[in-house]
Amino acid sequence: MSLALCKIYMTLSLEKLQMSALRYVMICAMLHIILGGVYDVKAVKHIAAIRRLDEANSINEMPYSIVVNAAARQHVISSLIYGVAFGTAETVSDLNAPLNRLGGNLASTYNWELNANNHGSDWYFESTHTTGQNLASAPGAYADAFISGSKEGGAAALMTIPLLPYIANLRPGYETLPSFSIQKYGPQTGHDPWHSDAGNGVSLPTGDFVSGNNPLDAYVPSNTTVQKAWIDHLHSTWGNASSGPLKYFLMDNEPSLWYHSHRDAYPKGLTMQDALDLIIDYGSMIKSVDPTAQALGPEEWGWLGYMYSGADQQFAQTNTYNHPNNFPDRAAHGGMDYVPWLLSQLYAYEQNTGQRILDYLSLHYYPQGGEFQGSNNLTMKLLRNRSTRELWDPDYISQSYLNTTVMLLPLMKSWVEQYYPGTKVALTEYNWGDDEGMSGATAQADILGILGREGVDVATRWECPASGTPTYQAFKMYRNYDGSNSTFGDVSLSTNSTANVDDLSSFAALRLSDGALTIMVVNKVLPPSSDAYIELSLIDLPLNLSCTGSSEVWMFSNASFVIERQADLSIERVEANGSLSSSLQIYVPAQSITLLVVPALSSCHWPPSPPNIPSAPAPPFNPTPVFKSNTVMLNSSSTTDSTAAGVLLSGSNVTFLTNITLVSGIFSHGIIDVEVHEGLNNNSLIYQHSWAGVNLPESGFVPMGQYPQIPVTATFIWDWVVTSTPGSYYMVVGTASGDWSVFYLWNSSSFSMQVEAPPPQPPFPPSPPQHPPQPPLPPISPSVVPPAGLVVAPTFSTALTMVVPGEDTMVLSPGETVTFITNVTLLHGFLLNGVVDMEIRNAGNSSQQLYQRYWLGIDMVPDSATNSGLPSPVPQATQASAVVLSFSWSWNASVSPGNYTIITGVFSSGWSTCYLWDTSSTLSVQGADDESSLEPPSRQTLALQPPLSKTYSPPHYVSSSVLPLQPTTYDPSLLAPIPPPTYSLQSTWRSTSAAPSYPPPVYPNTDDVRDSPNRSPRPHATITPHPPLYPASPEATRMAAPSK
């Protein structure tokens, strides 16, 4: 009875009361309990869903459309793509993971007889016992325990086989051995806090790597004979790969980085030929013991590791050449990229000997924009869920120092097809970060769907997510969503969606075990965005799909952080011409993963098919854009007792998120405009922020005879310093043509605010003016409020102080080391996930860059109280809207006497837009006899700011890296090398007087639109201050400190 009353009440509220869904749920629940019923959560949730659906229809909300074609079966999805690394028996079992990998830098030096590893650059180059407790153990016990745990959890093991010429050794009593003993090699810049003699291999007096160390300090020699003894042990213990739990053997780990990660044992970069010889020698040895063993390689670390050998990567850090084709190792092998050359030679070996060495082309990949270990602010969360497109999308340009189309999985498949036919494809290490957050979970769910859709054969994530974390639950949505090991389907189906893939992705597959149709929907949009309304169409369904007319719904979201079964959805089907078509509607929350399961039965009886009715012709396409918008307040620094939305204090700082949705038509090179006006009856303009050059859809055009993929939503984040007087204010959101001549949207009911006076404060002197004069008003339509001056990009000032040696003059002697503090002051606007760059160049030739240091992931937003996720140090406001950060850096003047320019730059994320390029500071390097011949250096005229108590040196800083290696790009249709642009390289590790040459800088227009976080980046002009040649290796922080 109570449920019936709720339904009646729902109808009345829809028609008369227009209540919110939350209030409606509460009233229904109370009625149900008062009338003696039991509180039925599912019933209340179902009613609330109906209420939300009707609310959406009442405002004519445009839904996303997803079409699944059950007849377009693409390929079988390999179950081996759901693998992990270092999973326990319990987690592997709970995840129903098919593979468990033992890998990483430690595995490169595993001594199976001692059960010892050397940590390499991960942890002070120490050889330690695998247990960390200096205990005796049976030979191979560590690896055997890993295989046993994998088997217990139902997974096959992937084992890394060392190819290095040395493996770890231990002192008597199984005690730790350091490669860089401080007693033996002198003072070093760091040491193990628990082992004072274990240095980091960087000389304290010189700052250079310790060279000439004896590998036998912490290692013993290794070769195929040593490793064959271990393979024999594994084979006798666990049996043939075809039937045992150990099936896969990895050819070491990231060998092109040995010269860095294991420089104590292999200081010279590995050449192409050496890499080939090692793979052939060890691969053939493994197959001589067990011909059914599966070999994977070369296990390279990332994009540059695919293109260049270790020898060329090392060469690039110590030499200056203008083109990668001049790299010695590459030039000696016909200018071919490293991995394709390996594949071609392995194929030639197979043709000559009849023996296949590699069964899988295996590579590692980490996004290089900070997603894995960078800051986790709003910008990074959005980037994390966009950059999964680097795995597949030919139209996506990596928003990192790579600045190229990666399209990794299709590229790998094209390589094996051309150079080593019959080889399978494996992604044996990847990670997009934020295991503890929903952005990591949605990215992981997206990746698992992509791996299946793109036909990857094997994949293992680094590492196994911690049990219960959101990313862990993302795996379970594919492999064990119901606790009974029920899985996503096995046969990939074609899906088409109108949603922007940066916001929502979908994957579909048939499950062979029971014939069920499974559909995974990943909503990546961040709260507080509203739920996504989806109309799902299923076409060409098999006739054995469920006659019950319902679909199971399983969901994981940040509402509960557990996988929950929702109320089933009704499906109406129509049989026509021997096939079925049907549709259903569903809401999916922001940041959620939803699995729909349409069960199957053995037989069905359907009513007669209705007569075929010719379809009406499609209406002509109208290019005039139609928009809708919504705005939410993300945060505010207001300190008020009022909890009402839109109540602000005068002088506070508030951040807004505005979504602009193109409902129909095309928007090409247009303008998005947000404004704040005073009073509902007063058109006084208080604030304005505009973005120019916006395209919706992304391309800004639609091919002849086609319709655009709409609706399309772009998100814009902006802040407003509430400097106005108390009173009522309202926001206006507009869209206009590129010359402001035509307005398509003028939403003056987007958001209303009430500004209240702040509590009394002690008197303080007035702040100087912060903003430059406003530009003239652009031409506008007479029917709308005139836009005022535009606020597009942040503005900065800088101040430079020499603190060591502390002299007043900027004059140095050759070889002298100097330390500077650079203060960067944000005068207006804000910076999210930006870059601060320091460079030294030859004053007489500005193209000669001698030094560079930069900091990534910088957030500068007025009032730190509104930005809880800012990195250390927390910005300190020195004026009403100014934020100051201090950066400490050092330079050794190992250059010829002369004048040099010190440059400070500030850039947006990915180096795409330059906001500041300050060349006003210079210094002189003078020899003993030339003091009078040099012009005195100029100093900045800006007042010096006192340094902050903290300076910002984040752990992912890479010293002195100048210009990035940019690999040869490929035309997917031809797979032929396309000559890359001109390159220049300079030392990664220290300054050099041999300066590179490169074209003069070309900067993007700083008045241009900054790319919305929810939109793919436009290609930008080349910027001379470049990101690093090599970011910090992912391995550098993947391994935890050993137990003590």
UniProtKB/TrEMBL annotation:
Residues 756-780, 927-947, 994-1044 are annotated as: Disordered. It comes from the Eukaryota. Pfam families: Glyco_hydro_44 (PF12891). Keywords: Membrane, Transmembrane, Transmembrane helix. Residues 117-368 form the Glycoside hydrolase family 44 catalytic domain. InterPro entries: GH (IPR017853), GH44_cat (IPR024745), Glyco_hydro_b (IPR013780). Residues 938-947 have a biased composition (Polar residues). The chain crosses the membrane at residues 21-39. The keyword Membrane applies. Residues 757-780 have a biased composition (Pro residues). This is Glycoside hydrolase family 44 catalytic domain-containing protein. It comes from Chlamydomonas eustigma. The lineage of its organism: Eukaryota, Viridiplantae, Chlorophyta, core chlorophytes, Chlorophyceae.
